[in-house]
Every structure is written in C-alpha cells, then in structure tokens.
Fold:
Amino acid sequence: MEIEERQPVPAGSGRAGPAGPRPAEPVGAQPPEPSGPRRSPLGRGALIGAVAGCVVLGGVLVLLPSLDPGGAPRPAAGPVARAVSAVGAGVPAALPDLAALIDDREARVRARPRDDVSWAVLGVAYTEQGRRTAAAAYYPKAEKALRTSLSVRPKDNVAALEGLASLADARGDFRTAKQWGEAAVKLSPKRWTTYPTLIDAYTGLGDHKAVDKALDKLLALRSGPAARAVAARVYRDRGRREDAAAAISDAAAGAATPSEQAAFLQQAGDLAWERGDRQESLDHYRAAVNTDADAYDALAGQGRALMALGRTSEALRAYQAALAKRPTPRFALELGELYEKLGLGGAAGVQYDLLRELVRRESAEGVDDELVLGLLEADHGDPQAAVRALRAEWQRQPGIAVADALGWALHRAGDDREALGFAVRAMDTEHGGLVRSALYAYHRGRIERDLGLSGPARRHLTEALRINPYFTPLLVPEAQQALAALGEPPAGGPPEESGESGESGGSDGSDQPEQSDQSRRSEGSDDAAGTAGAAGPSGAAESSGSSGSSAAPRTDSPGAADPATAPGLPSAR
Structure:
C-alpha cells in the first residue's frame, strides 16, 4: 500500500536560501542476485557523482500507508510519524526520526513476521540509515529485510523491488539497481519514487539517453521538490548550470522539513563550488549545516570552500568533524590531500591508510568504492593497481566518472596513448560527457601535453582553471605550472595538420575504439598540434538501458566537451 504524497510548500516561501546573518562556522522471473562484493563509486573533490552519484536525495520510498481506514489523514505527532512523512515524500528523514522508525518496525516484524509492508519499510530505513551515516553494516540488514518482504509476498511487491533498487544504488551497484528498478516500474509505471533510483543507475552505467527518458517520466508524474532536485542533478550532468541552479533553488524553496531543506542547500553548494564560487558555496553549506546538524556532506563542503578561501585551520576542523561523524573514503581522500598541500605528509598518509581501511570494510558489506580507491592509488599509491581496478570497474559500469578516472590512472601508469581515448570519452557529447568539470578538463589537458599536443593541452588546461580555479588544492598548482610551461601559442597559430590516425571498430567484433564525428574534426588554428592513437579496453561491459529523449543542449559550456584531437573513443560494448 502506498501513502498519499505530501504536497510541497509552494515555491517562493522564503525557505530556499541562506538569508540573514551568516551562521557560526563549524568546529571540529526476478532480477538476478548481485554477484560478488560491490562498492559505492565516489568521485574526487566536488564531483560527487558525479556518477555516481549520484545519490538519490533521501533514498527513501513510498512504502507506508498514511491514511486511517476512514480516509482521514494521520497526524504527524512524533518521530515515527515524521519519518513516515519523509518516506512518503522521497526525501531525507531526520536521523533521530529514522532511528525511531527502525525501532518501531523492528518491533512490528517481531510481533508480525508475515507483515510484508513492515519488512519493506524496515529495509528501506536500514538503507537510508547506512547511506546517511556511512555505516555500511546496515546494508546486509536492509537486504535481509527486503528479501524477507519479497518472500512473504513474492508477487506484485513493488515496495520490496523498489527498496532493493535503492539498496543497490546505495552500494554503488548500478547494474543491479537498474534491474530491480525496471522490475518495479514494470509493475507500477506511475510510481514516481522509482525513477530517481533508475536515473542514478543509468548515470552510473553511462546510459545518458535512458537518463533523459526516465527524467521525462519523473517530471510528468511529479513536480515537487524531490523531483526538482533530481532534475537539477541531470541538468548539471548535461552542462546546463543555470537550469540546475534554478531547479535546486525551487526545490529548496518548497522544502517542508529541515532535513529536506539541508539536502537541497547542500546540492546548491555543490553547484556553486563546481563553478568556482567559493563564498556562495560556503554560504549554502553553512546554511545546510545550520538547518540540519547531521548534514555531514555539507560540513565537508565547508572544508573545501574554506580551504579555497585560504582559511586553512577552519577547513581542517570542518573536514575532521565531517569525517568523525560520517567516515567515508571520499572525505578521507580530500582531507589527506589538504594535509599534503600543507606539507604534512605523515598526516596525509594516515588519511590515505584510513581510506584503504574504509574501502576494505565497505567491500565486506557489498559496497563498491573502486572509483575513489582508483583515484587514490593513481595519485598517491600504485598506478598499475589503479588501472587494474578501474578497468574492472569500467567493465561493470562504464560511466563518465569511471572513464575519466581510468584515463588518468593510465596516464599515471605511463600509457598516455590509451589514456587519451578515455579522457576524450569523459568529455564526448555523443556519450553524455557534457558536465563542465575542471577535473576532467585538467586530466585531459595533462595527457595531451605529455603526448605533445600543445594546442589541445593549452585549451583544456585553461578551461579547467576557468571552470573552477580552486578545484583541488594539489592539482591547481600543477595545472598552472603545466600551462606556463606550454607558453603562449605561436603568432597566427600553428600550421594546420590533416589526417587523424585512429581506427574505428573493426567488423570482426573485437573491442576497438569507437570514433565520433566530433573526434575527427580539426582542432583549428590553435589546436591542430598532432594526434595520438588510443585503444579501448578489452571486453568492456555493455551499457544497457532504453533510449529516450535528449536533454536540451548546453548554452554555457564553450568547448568543454569537444573531443577533437583524439583518434578514437574507448568502446563500452
């Protein structure tokens, strides 16, 4: 049974922004079973996502009845009722309320072990508690509860299917999330709460057409704050920054609870950070933490913005407090790199060791952290190990963030020719690489520089610093030095060279790089400085999902996703 959806507070209610005096700063047949341990992909710095992301705000689904048998709305009189209301709206519940809901449903299933609805609710609550607190030990509990619900009611149990999709999404197992989510949609195509999880899954699998189609369906079914927040994520991935900012502003204006509003404010902070607006991002992050003290992602965001503003001691305290409350590999990586920037190599090493330990623990609970682990090993450990791990990740789920990370790992391991194909793939418009990412542009520019492609390298390094001049404390100085070493372009530009040496996939079915029309285009007077071959990975996984309508083209990203200079693209066959 589904609950009646709570109507959002109308936009313009004055709840969206960080108005007023600045708050004090922080101190301190069913789809298959998942095969093998899985770990949640995490990006570096502000790119939360990207892929993965790509996290569904709140991650909770419509699972509970909210009406008395007579039809009268139930009053939200206590923490359990408040959590029920958040569950019904698909937005975050306050952590104390979520804990109360877990206690309540544990008691119910002990008393009524055949109550499939309570088992499903309990599984979803466990998933959300694990996601919000980075306590991966909740995920096996969630899976047991959801599968118990499915065994009690094996037919037409949309709640359990949706819950299993959300669980796989939280673990970073996007292929399994897609399978469970599509099974839920097949049973109930108008149940809007399934679509955010499917959008995350399609994003992680690199299927941008399916993302657009799922977003169209979501917005046709729902126009409230939770749907607007999902739309903002997709618009961001498409390079439509103004649309993303407007959508998340509308979502924050309509937020009905502090936890919900804090999540949307944190998302607004991420968008401001990615365009290099340090103060605006800090204001949003502060407002989020001031609204909900358990908004730990926003607390780490404050550390990022404070470091960019030169307020190092405050940045360290913010990161340390966030990591103590929500010990995630991404926070450990960012704090370690901050220590390294400050010349505190020993402290940085402690954080990198912590990251590896967190990945080990989460892997035991079925979580996929290969992306963040690969970034760590590429820059601070064993690049060859990073290549092996990220190749396997690419075969499982060939999303944009994985393409970028694998390309960078290959570069760090000394294979720039193959690295360029993946770096181009991460920015190729035909494969959804529309996000305006300073990190992606930097990675590509450095690879091009080492291949002697001075024009493209100059353009992409300049673009990285233009998108966000503060994107990471360690890489910004390297970008500036690389750009300075390239010097100014020759007067009148270099002589244009024709002919690119890459090969497209052969007819024998082998896994050869694809080549888009754009990748065969000349770079122009400043960018025609030669080409390099690139080979795709052997046996890359198929990116599955249905095709759909495309998002509107970017209007604010000149040149960001031009894949020229690369002879071919790695195939995601």
User: Anything to note?
Assistant: The two ends are 40 Å apart (CA to CA). The chain has 23 helices and no strands.
